[in-house]
Design goal:
about 325 residues; alpha/beta; Arc Repressor Mutant, subunit A; D-Maltodextrin-Binding Protein, domain 2; 3 domains; six-stranded mixed sheet; five-stranded mixed sheet; LysR_HTH_N; transcription regulation; DNA-binding
Length: about 325
């Protein structure tokens, strides 16, 4: 008996579930039929692909190697089938999106509303929240189709397209000596004598802020993950502390704090850029392609994203 396509799909499912009864149920075949198909495949290849492990099975060393080729081949085949089906159908399917909270709270909802207005509701979006480094890894591992995050160096397989940016600001209590300032220079922060709190340096935004504070010789306490915890610290401190952070929706609940922009002679207004990130050479169905194309041209209605500046430049 010659190897056939069904056997490869059966092999992939059994390798995934490692249980004959469960795999047969998901394949809508009987367990004996699945067992016979796998035995026939092993006979054709001349090597054992599975071995018993209690009530389950696991891949042998041959099975593990064979699985790499089978998964790649079936993935490409499934893509080809999807492309052919799209020629006769309208946009549909599901797009898995990951984003940092500063994107998922305002920019992304506006983008999705624009997409639905343009293409209808047949395409479903599943949105998850995370931090940049985790989002990038999950994108590479196919958990997401596209993510919105900060930039990460040394990712040659990914396309980073800038979409919005956040301004670098200081935040202080309303009775702080700096509260009346309309803007502030970095040298003023260096000379002010107040405790300055900012992000920890092992996250992208923290590294960007540290580069600026190091340039100006500003000493800071670098231990915060996001704007919410940072503002909370400044809001609850008894002394005249200063927060150095980016202006995002995370600051909105802290109405007792005053936001002071950092002078644009020292740092650009689009200080911290957010990117739409996707795989360069990966197959994209029409729904995902249309979403990416729309995001590249999307300009939110004026006034809807007060904490963001739209960025339109070449991808990185």
């Amino acid at each position: 008996m010659s190897m056939n396509l069904s056997q490869l799909y059966y092999f992939r499912k059994l390798a995934e579930l490692q249980h004959y009864t469960k795999a047969a149920k998901e394949l809508y075949i009987t367990q004996p039929a699945l067992s016979d198909a796998i035995k026939s495949l092993e006979k054709e290849l001349g090597v054992p692909l599975f071995q018993r492990k209690g009530r389950n099975v696991c891949l042998t060393k041959y099975g593990k190697e064979f699985a790499v080729y089978v998964n790649d081949a079936l993935r490409e085949l499934d893509k080809g089938i999807a492309v052919m089906k799209e020629y006769t159908g309208s946009l549909s399917g599901r797009i898995n999106i990951g984003g940092i909270y500063t994107i998922t709270g305002d920019y992304l909802p506006a983008l999705l509303r624009s997409y639905h207005a343009e293409y209808g509701d047949a395409v479903k979006f599943v949105v998850s929240q995370g931090v940049t480094l985790e989002l990038i890894e999950d994108l590479k591992n196919d958990k997401y189709d596209v993510v919105f995050s900060a930039f990460k160096d040394n990712e040659p397989t990914l396309r980073f397209f800038p979409v919005v940016a956040h301004q670098l600001v200081a935040c202080v209590k309303a009775d702080h000596p700096l509260a009346e300032r309309k803007s502030i220079r970095m040298d003023d922060l260096r000379k002010c004598g107040f405790e300055i709190y900012t992000y920890r340096t092992d996250i992208p935004i923290g590294a960007e802020v540290a580069a600026v504070t190091d340039e100006y010789g500003i000493k800071t306490h670098q231990r915060f993950d996001d704007e919410i915890t940072l503002c909370g610290m400044v809001s609850n401190e008894r002394d005249d502390s200063v927060g150095l952070l980016t202006y995002t929706i995370g600051m909105k609940p802290f109405t007792d704090l005053v936001i002071i922009p950092i002078d644009d002679r020292d740092v650009p207004v689009d200080f911290h850029r957010m990117y739409m990130v996707y795989k360069k050479d990966e197959f994209k169905n029409r729904a995902l392609e249309s979403f990416i194309d729309l995001a590249k041209e999307f300009v939110p209605p004026e006034g809807t994203l007060p904490t963001c500046k739209v960025v339109r430049e070449n991808a990185e």
